[in-house]
Amino acid sequence: MSKVYINAGAAISAQATFDGGFLENAVINRQDVFLPAIEPDYKAFISPVASRRMSKAVKMAIIASAQALNESGVSVPDAIITGTGAGCIIDSEKFLKAIIDNDEQFLTPTSFIQSTHNTVGAQIALGLNCKGYNFTYVNGAVSFESALLDAIMQIELQQANNVLVGGVDEMTPYFLELQQMIGHAKSDIATVGSVQSEGAGFFVLANTPTESTYAAIEDVTLYNKLSIAELPSFITGFLRKHHLEPSQIDLVVAGNNGDVFDDYYDKAAHLFRNYAITVQYKQLTGEYFTVSAFALWLASRIIKEQHIPEILKPHAVKHKAIKNVLIYNQYRGLDHSLILLKRV
Amino acid sequence: MELLKEELKNKIIEVLNLEEVVPGDIADDAPLFGEGLGLDSIDALELIVLLDKDYGIKVTDPKDGKVIFKSINALASFVAENKTK
Amino acid sequence: MRIAVTGMGIISAIGTSLEENLYHLKYGVTGITRSENLSTRHNGLLFGEVKFSNEHLARLLGLPADNNFSRTAMLGAYAAQQALENAAVKDINHSRTGLISASSVSGMDMTEKYLYDFKESAEHRKYIDSHHTGNVTHQIAGYIGVKGLVTTISTACSSSANAIMMGANLIRTGRLDRVVVGGTDALAKFTVNGFNSLMILTDGYNRPFDANRKGLNLGEGAAYLVLESETLLKKEDRPVLAYLAGYGNANDAYHQTASSETGEGAFLAMEKALALAGLEPGAISYVNAHGTATVNNDLSEARALERIFGNQMPDISSTKPFTGHTLAAAGSIEAIYSILAMKHQLVFPNLNFQTPMEEVAIQPQQTLKEKKIDFALSNSFGFGGNCSTLIFSKK
């Protein structure tokens, strides 16, 4: 089976990650319970006629994917695979409220069309005139990882030489309020739940490395539900499948978000405590279903540049060469995922 | 009629979210779809609801849109002849 | 690596078991009626509705009173459980088993009831979390006892055909031994009004491939298949219902909702599926068409079929006059109908057809027809130009 390389990546997040920098000017916001994405100047990329129906998620995804494609030198990918945990909630909410408020009358189709989960991938394809494979995954915190897994398989099975793969999520005030009502999102900084955010991350994976290659992506795995006791064997089993022991992992990128389910991350970190550096990143990005796309962007750049941004270092560590990197994420004890990267 | 045309242009711009277009950009006899303003079949459905909501005109076959929305001139005369509110 | 289908489960407007569905298909009995369970202003429309109330479904599934299953999740759990029983899987987690489910409307049937109510009272807040597409899948996985690789595909009306492809790829790449694949969607005001605003709902019965077709009837339902690797089957020796011989997905890249006039995406999807199956078009003896009976889809699909099959056109029928368009469940429901067609060597009728389209030569099969079918092809297309084709083989 072909090896899979990450040849390009772009991220839009609550930090200025779209300007080419690598978190040099990142700030940790400890006051707000929602961190909005720092949006690029859409007009520089999308014409007003094209963008007039696009929600934030679609715009973020189109711009992040354009930048990733540009970096990779691929103009039209063989496949486009997208993950979104909540989908296009701005338009879903708009259409839903219109139905209720107008008693099912005078409804126009635009927000309905834009509410469809695969509208992001479809609009990227439409813009690129890409007639290839086009899938969308919508499964909570493994939405992006599912897309990534599919992308890897498309290359392994030689159905595609290169794949545009990404994750995107947007937020609305009402959706946030609902998440706060059930204690998933923080209402103020002292309450339970996590700080919410939004963003997009897109990557070009390919079967051959190029000058821009960040890392090789060995594999991704998902697990719907695990107890904390089951977690170590889930991780070691996955590593063993790739002929690795925990001692051979140099860096763990962990998704701690401050909620009560952080025990999972502590358990994972414990497994690697004598071997690897563990970095956390959600203090920068907040939590959203496809935040792992940011984690992948982060890990890829760390491997390529062999440098961990200052703001992420737990303490002033001098690290050895970073060859093998493991990204672990879960949300509320569900949707566990592991992504294994290797230096090329 | 001129007032109605101006009103329709403003409504089209608003409903279809045509940022950066002003009523003066839309010529009365220019095609609204395809060439010209560049509207498509989804916009046609938006305009059908506009006719229903604001002028009490029910268009039941979307194919009729081709004639009705040919230009601002065509649309204005259609509205003038058929409006019920 | 061959992918075997070892189990099937289904709930649709024409039945809550394989047998009931087959009976209706054979005897040409439609499931399209007025709605009994859906509260909508558009109550003059006809739907392919499952006639079980939510309360009845919850009782059948044995769910506790405080459950937060949406109708979509209940239909899904019902069909997925049936599929596993049909496959006679004993210990589901003895082999590496996954679940790839599909849905488009997900928990919207509850959200649209309680959206403003959530704020006022805590009573229905249990449905906030079950709104998510992924949570519908989690509930189904929990119900059938799958622990492992679980995820969801949502590509509008091709979703469950795509879930079948993803499942097959997980087996082909050695990641799973067995995977439950399919989709579920319940009727909801959200989709009724969405399709109504697109002006593609008929005011009568849907008539696929007819010159005077006026649009689709929405339907609801769920269907799941159990896919297994041949290696696993050699160990467990259970009967094989069919094989998934080929599959393909392509994008029309033409318009956000409409299909291109040439049916380019559909053509590419069928071409890919045939190539993966290593088949010439002439090997296909039955096509279960997407055939939604919208003006746009049927012409586009017919043109794509003519491009693929030329003058070797197999028998074609759309079964949507039986079930309505079940959106994300359509791909797996029709996959099961294609397998039933092969198993019983029957072409199911395309109901309500009267007048051929002027633009194309295609005419669907209008009556039940006995026929040798070794390979059946099923099309599913969705918004966003998403075009999918599955090919099943008897052996």
Explain what the structure shows.
The complex is a heterotrimer of chains A (344), B (85) and C (395). Chain A has eleven helices and twelve strands. Chain A has helices spanning 48-51, 56-72, 89-101, 110-115, 119-128, 143-156, 173-181, 231-241, 263-271, 282-285, 292-305; strands at residues 5-12, 34-35, 79-83, 133-137, 162-169, 196-197, 199-206, 215-225, 251-254, 277-280, 324-331, 334-342. Chain A has a ten-stranded mixed sheet, with helices on both faces. In chain A, strand 9 (251-254), helix 9 (263-271) and strand 10 form a beta-alpha-beta unit. The two termini of chain A are 17 Å apart. By secondary structure, chain B is mainly alpha-helical. Chain B has a single domain (2-82), classed as Non-ribosomal Peptide Synthetase Peptidyl Carrier Protein, Chain A. In chain B, helix 1 packs across helix 4. Chain C has helices at 18-27, 54-61, 71-87, 108-114, 117-120, 126-130, 133-144, 159-172, 189-197, 230-236, 264-277, 295-309, 320-323, 330-344, and strands at residues 3-11, 32-33, 47-48, 97-102, 150-153, 178-185, 221-229, 242-251, 286-288, 315-317, 346-347, 369-370, 375-382, 386-393. In chain C, strand 9 (286-288), helix 12 and strand 10 form a beta-alpha-beta unit. Chains A and C meet through helix 3, helix 4, helix 5, strand 4 and helix 6 of A and helix 4, helix 7, strand 5, helix 8 and helix 9 of C.
Silhouette of chain C: globular
Q: Given the structure, what is the number of helices of chain B?
A: 4
Question: What is the CATH architecture descriptor of chain B?
Answer: Orthogonal Bundle
**N- to C-terminal distance of chain C:** 14 Å
CATH fold annotation of chain B: Non-ribosomal Peptide Synthetase Peptidyl Carrier Protein, Chain A
Family (chain C): Belongs to the thiolase-like superfamily. Beta-ketoacyl-ACP synthases family.
InterPro entries (chain C): Beta-ketoacyl_synthase, Ketoacyl_synth_AS, Ketoacyl_synth_C, Ketoacyl_synth_N, PKS_Beta-ketoAc_synthase_dom, Thiolase-like
Keywords (chain C): Transferase
Protein name (chain C): Beta-ketoacyl-[acyl-carrier-protein] synthase family protein
